[in-house]
């Protein structure tokens, strides 16, 4: 495919709720960013990422998209709104997209509740909710051990990896900050998987700053941001347990 034949896909994502410029901590924005980044690496598309400050959206954003919230995908001048429709569009309409969508009921079932268990823990902040989240993570760890693959469905990334990894990062960063929750170091297969993801451009290029991850949950809990947060140098957690570092 010649360079000029490669379609440009634009993904509009939420900007940081702290500085309004860098990429924000929306798990769906990051999921589709990762999906499309993988396709851009394969040169089936060229990818343009646009951040929009939802506290102060530009006038043309509102006139074009009314009340829609990012993520918004633009393909050949046509805006695709709503997460499930964006997903379907990537799978059916974007060159190479069908390769990302690997049917696997076991993976789908194992990862489907991880984010709701995490949100429940943030709300309750008790041992029972922490244990429920840990149980879900243990099941993912056991599945990875059984499969023996680099990623969730095989040795190449698919849509499930792009869905799970942003959630794992929120669990690490916000779980630790609000609930002193840590992913147990004993989950070596899960940590090996996380380490693998930390080495991939699709993750590192789409990954929001720790401060932005923490800030969206502060906002949800009605905690006001303090001014100095805007001046902080963004940090990005990508450490792994020392037992795995070798």
Number of helices: 10
Sequence stretches where pLDDT stays below 50 over 5 or more residues: none
Largest sheet strand order: 2-1-3-4
Proportion of residues in β-strands: 5-15%
Basic shape: globular
Beta strands, count: 4
> Can you write the helix and strand succession as a string?
EHEHEEHHHHHHHH
Query: Percent helix among the residues?
Result: 40-55%
Mean pLDDT, rounded to whole units? 94
How far apart are the termini? 41 Å
Overall radius of gyration: 18 Å
Return the structural class. alpha+beta
Mind summarizing the main beta sheet?
A: 4 strands, mixed
Give a quick summary of the entry.
The chain is an alpha+beta fold and 246 residues long. The protein has helices spanning 27-41, 59-65, 83-93, 105-111, 114-124, 127-147, 159-179, 188-198, 201-204, 210-220; strands at residues 8-14, 46-52, 72-75, 78-80.
């Amino acid at each position: 495919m010649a360079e000029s034949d490669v379609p440009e896909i634009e993904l509009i994502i939420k900007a940081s709720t702290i500085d309004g410029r860098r990429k924000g901590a929306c798990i769906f924005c990051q999921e589709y960013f990762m999906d499309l980044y993988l396709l851009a690496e394969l040169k089936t598309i060229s990818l343009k990422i646009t951040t929009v400050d939802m506290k102060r959206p530009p006038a043309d954003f509102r006139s074009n998209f009314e009340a829609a919230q990012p993520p918004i995908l633009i393909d050949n001048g046509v805006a695709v709104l709503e997460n499930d429709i964006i997903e379907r569009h990537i799978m059916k309409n974007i060159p190479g997209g069908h390769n990302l969508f690997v049917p696997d009921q076991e993976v789908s079932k194992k990862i489907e509740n991880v984010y709701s268990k995490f949100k429940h823990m943030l709300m309750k902040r008790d041992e029972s909710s922490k244990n429920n989240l840990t149980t879900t993570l243990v099941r993912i760890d056991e599945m990875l051990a059984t499969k023996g693959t680099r990623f969730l469905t095989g040795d190449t990334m698919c849509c499930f990896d792009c869905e799970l990894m942003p959630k794992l990062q929120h669990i690490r960063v916000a779980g630790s900050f609000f609930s002193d929750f840590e992913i147990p170091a004993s989950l070596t297969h899960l940590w090996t998987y996380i380490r693998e993801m930390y080495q991939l451009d699709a993750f590192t290029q789409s990954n929001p700053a720790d401060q932005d991850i923490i800030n969206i949950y502060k906002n949800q809990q009605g905690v006001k941001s303090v001014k100095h947060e805007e001046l902080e140098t963004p940090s990005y957690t990508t450490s792994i347990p020392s037992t795995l570092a070798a």
